[in-house]
Amino acid sequence: MEKFEKIDNEFYASKYGIPRVGDPNEIWKKIKDNRELLNWSIKKTKDKFGERDLVNGLAICDNILVDYNGVDKDIYQELVNLIYSNEQIARIVQDGYNNGGFSYLLMTLWNPNLKLTDEQKAFAVDEAMNKMGTVRHENAMNEYSKKLDEKGITDEQTMYTEFGGSVNPVGAKTGNMYMASLFSSLSDTQAHGSGDFDIRYWILRNPNWSLEEKQKLIMDFWTDDEIYDETLEQWEWGVVNDDANYKGEALPQFDKSEMYEYSYEELLKFYGNKETTDRIWDEIQFCKQMHQLRSQQWELEFVKPRVLEKIRQN
């Protein structure tokens, strides 16, 4: 098995090494045709301290999840089943930091054709609820605030906390709340992506969840209306700033204000090929659906509630 470990290490160095060594595409071509190596890669093992669950081939499994259409289907499914049955393996990150990189779990949601069981869906949602800003996170912070009150810790007392590299006096309660939030943000519970396109986006984008399920999730995923509004705005800007919209120009040739007015035929004429048109069209329909599931604040002021539409999902 030392030979297999060497191959996995070489593959990692070709993808994520500094500097990168070797051609990852050429190495992967040899790996994905070697069933014995793939079988070895997806087997559970322990880290060198015997404490944390891992898989034998960390870099290889990472690529199995990316190349889901090109790799052996049984191998892929066995790895998926392992991920959805093991929290520690679900949080493995090869690309990025452990508290926000592309986790194994997140990468399974990149495959729109992967069918998940109810138990697997519940597992993914449970992991997503650990993200900062969810109902669960807000409830945990509220509970911590109450415990501080019960202990008599208030901002009338002073503690010294490091902010931005300098030590500053702050209210004791505020300082404790800040540290609790900081520790949460550094935890591997945050592994599943970061920013506007973290695991919450991918669950809402995924066809395994029904419209009714997404109706509840989109409320539970973001308790702060302003943060949700900004997140949806960034999803829309993601469409506008897609590489396909630049057409060789310095700025995208796509009018955000007309985003929901474009017809499929107009987009097809603009892009000139069906694959790009389908991709952009589906993303526009997704954003439109999110507006229907949870309106932004300005919409609540000026637009009457709309009836939910069943929008095609890929």
Structural descriptors:
two-stranded antiparallel sheet; two-stranded antiparallel ribbon; 6 strands
Description of the structure:
- The protein is mainly α.
- The protein has 16 helices and six strands.
- The protein has helices spanning 2-16, 24-31, 35-41, 58-66, 73-83, 87-90, 104-108, 118-128, 135-150, 172-186, 199-205, 211-221, 225-240, 264-271, 274-293, 297-302; strands spanning 44-46, 53-55, 93-95, 102-103, 158-163, 166-171.
- A two-stranded antiparallel ribbon has the order 1-2. It has a two-stranded antiparallel ribbon with strand order 3-4.
- Helix 13 packs antiparallel against helix 15 (274-293) and helix 14 packs across helix 15 (274-293).
- The longest helix is centred in the last third of the chain and has 20 residues, at 274-293.
- The model has no long low-confidence stretch (mean pLDDT 92).
What is the CA–CA distance across the termini? 40 Å
How many beta-strand elements? 6
Q: How many H/I helices? A: 16
Report the sheet with the most strands, covering strand number, pairing sense and barrel closure.
Answer: 2 strands, antiparallel
Chain-averaged pLDDT: 92
Global outline: globular
Estimated helix fraction: 40-55%
With strands numbered from the N-terminus, the spatial order across the biggest sheet is 1-2
What class, by secondary structure content? mainly alpha
Approximate strand percentage: 5-15%
